[in-house]
Amino acid sequence: MEAIAAALADPEGQGILVRAGAASSAQTLAAYTTFPPGRLSWARGFLDGPPLDLDLDLPPAAFIDAFGRQLRAGWGAARTGGSARLTDRILGYETNFVAICLGALDRWNREQDAIVLWDIDETLVGSGSRLRFLRPSSESVLRYAERQYPNLRHGVLSSLAPEWIPAAADLIAQVMGRSGSFGEATFRYSFRPALDRFDGVDWGILMEAMVKCGLPICGRGPFADGWPFYVTEFSRVLALLSLRRRGHNVQVVDNDLNACFDRDNTAENQVSEEARDWLKSMVGETCATGPHWWPQEAEEWILELLAAAQRNP
Fold first, then answer.
1. Least confidently predicted of 122-131, 193-202, 206-215
2. CB count, 10 Å around CB of 131?
3. Among 103, 109, 242, 299, which residue's CB has the most CB atoms within a 10 Å radius?
4. Residue 156: pLDDT above 90?
5. Phi, psi of 142 (to 5 degrees)
6. pLDDT computed for residue 150 by the predictor
7. How far is Cα of residue 105 from the mean position of the Cα atoms in its chain?
8. Cα distances (Å, whole numbers) of residue 104 to 1, 27, 214, 263
9. Residue 82: pLDDT over 60
10. What pLDDT, on the 0 to 100 scale, is given for residue 290?
11. CA–CA dist 194, 234 (Å, integer)
12. Which sign does the torsion angle of CA 12, 116, 120, 47 carry?
């Protein structure tokens, strides 16, 4: 328990929150995706399809509406092998993600020195085997934020291994047609070591350690080893707390934390009200929360498009 308490008190010092590298190697980036980044941009025409030609000067509500209409118009009937297509469910979640993000970004843009830490997998980027791609919603949000919320700084907080985070940041920038890399290199963090450290630890031991560190506690829950939520959410919240204690005004956008606050998603979210209250007390307004979960068929839909493009280059 003492070792756990030490990790909770000082995640960076204990090596469970790790700063990622500044740049990726060509070998790592090549392993990250097999497609030229320019073909993965929805704004420029994903796989030579219809571009999302969105007016970045629209007010947020009009931009959200335009995103939904253009995505439906351009991709609503897109099929590969007669199976995959953009469904109302996918369209709804993609559009809702834009709405959740813009609401939070607009609020944070008014704060002093706010740093938005973006999750990578299933939040900004979808993935198959060597087939990473930006979601249509995430690319649109990032482009809008670049134009409308200039006071925001951007970084990464991901469960990816530290060596993969620069490759993801480079891919995002290249898809958007930007030089350099996405986000500030000094604010790219991996909490993968925290997942390895806490996996298999009984929640009762974590509660003892939290009491020792002066943190609020939450009762046992339905997940492995009595956890009230996944170890991923806990590790991300711990990372945010650590950075905030160092004086950084960090915010986070993360698909998994969004899912924790989706009371209607009983298939993919079993978080109790007590666990939600604990998470909210820990992250406050530093998290873009709302009923959002990227459905599996969204990733499958895009992966089928990519597979078809590979078969017919």
1. 122-131
2. 18
3. 242
4. yes
5. -65, -40
6. 95
7. 14
8. 37, 36, 29, 20
9. no
10. 85
11. 9
12. negative
Note whether 11 and 105 are within 8 A (CB). no
Q: Are 233 and 257 in contact (CB under 8 A)?
A: yes
Cβ neighbours around 18 below 10 Å, total: 19
In Å, what is the CA distance from 293 to each residue of 149, 160, 179, 223, 256?
25, 19, 31, 19, 8
CB-CB contact of 277 with 53 (8 Å) = no
Token pair of 176 as six digits: 């958007």
**Stated pTM of the model:** 0.94
Amino acid identity, position 155: G
Residue type, 197: R
Q: Which two tokens stand for residue 254?
A: 């993360």
